[in-house]
Amino acid sequence: MSFSVVRTRFAPSPTGYLHVGGLRTALYAYLVAKQNQGKFLLRVEDTDRERFVEGAIEDFLKALNWAGINPDEGVCLEGEHIAQKGDLGPYIQSERLDVYKRYSDQLIEKGFAYKCFCTKERLDGLREELQKKGEVPKYDRHCLGLTEDEINKNVSEGQPFVVRLKIPEGITTFKDEIRGDISYPNKDLDDQVLMKSDGFPTYHMAVVVDDHEMQISHVIRGEEWISSTPKHIILYNAFGWDVPVHAHLPLLLNEDRTKLSKRQGDVAVNDYINKGYLPEALVNFVAFLGWNPGDEREIFSIKELIKSFSLDKVSKSGAFFNTEKLDWYNREYLKNISMTDFMIGIKNFSQIESIKNFNEEVLLKIGDILKERISKYKDIDTMIEEGELQYFFDKPNLEKNKIPNKNCDVDKTKEYLSATIDILSNMMSDWSPENIKETLWDYSGEKGRGDVLWPLRYSLCGKDKSPDPFTLAYVLGKDETISRIKNAISVLNV
RNA sequence: GGCCCUAUCGUCUAACGGUUAGGACAUCAGGUUUUCAUCCUGGAAAUCGGGGUUCGAUUCCCCGUAGGGUCACCA
Description:
Helices cover 45% and strands 11% of the residues. It is α/β, with parallel strands linked by helices. Strands 1-2-3-4 form a four-stranded mixed β-sheet, with helices on both faces. It has a three-stranded antiparallel β-sheet with strand order 5-6-9. A two-stranded antiparallel sheet has the order 7-8. Strand 3 (73-78) and strand 4 form a beta hairpin. Helix 9 (279-287) crosses helix 11 (323-335). The longest helix is centred in the N-terminal third of the chain and has 16 residues, at 20-35. The protein is elongated, with a radius of gyration of 32 Å. It binds one RNA strand through helix 4, strand 8, helix 6, strand 13 and helix 11.
């Protein structure tokens, strides 16, 4: 191979939104470029005009940017606008039509490709016929036999035509960086359309021409492209170009082990952004879907990934996109985030009204509680919506029989609660969870930890499950704490 | 159906011929300054089947089986 510089690319087509499989492909390509001091480019493959989706390019770019994967060259975002940088552009295929035309003419001239005037009807009929006979549907090369005169006549009459690749005899073999040698008998290959009748190239033509023109050294893409790679190799050979390294990544799978798709859960990167996952976590997670460093480390920043990643350690089989593991990753990253960043994260993320009920002070006080209990920012909204945090604002409704600890009678409970009020009222140290705990420690130890602390905790929140009573008391403040305990005593007196 | 790819705990994976088949997530049990959460400890859990090659196969080869991908003027 004569590529002196590593140049990789991510080449999405703007037909939808970036999904997690695409994110991983982009990430791997990015890592390979970065670890070799190479360049990562982004090219837009918009040769299918019918499937073009408005805004898709921006979406790709934004999602990639969120993940920390930014192109060195090619299509990029400048503020809110799409821009292009680099000397080998344009990097949007619809702006390169003349390039493909030039190369396609060259191919025809050299006899590697030919014009085909067959109508859609004829092609459909042919396919149907072959399928009925149980044969592989392939073009029958009807137009390969056309004479020069016939071709010229058809063209001058304005008959639409496509350009087809003339597949040579033999066997085509290529080396896949992940799977090793892969061979296809050429007789199984169809005379692939290179140029469509609308003057646009097909993917196969465009990808080969552009990868060559943009000096791509590593073609890193999904496994679904394996079977069209031989056609690309034949094209490289026809042009006399060096073939870049190919690496076909295993697919990301649904739970039923089919190719990851919508319908079976969230697949768009945006879905995960909107649920409040941290970019570092998603990146770490998808990086490990199909790759690992070979030792037992699991937490890798993108910088560490650049250092450790290698294509030959990428696995060959598809991986199920398991969000439970993703949640774990996100919790790990949440642990290391500062409280300030955590607060910013919540504020930036939360869409719902309820978060606005929280004043800064309370939010800061319950930060640790929140951080420990959520997997992702969205969970906070869920907790709020389900009223799980309501006791921080409103006095709870208490059920009398739930106030005493298990096997502790009402009179004793009243006594403990009253004593707790006294102890807390006379507390001299600062009102902090640690000090509250310390203040109550001897007394509760003496009377029975659970018998004293359970009713306290329940009095403050009215829930079977909650954070510890000291934190609760701290967040509520001394006055409110005492008021709630008094309330509990009065409930017991009813 | 043709062609191609793949196959280790439920899941993600490690073990580049010799290991009590390792780790992580999830799960279960126990523990930790009441509950929940966190944290700690421990348990259960896998080499698709059949043939070879070899002193020895998860590992190499073949055949099955299963799953997936692909067979467009879509990428």
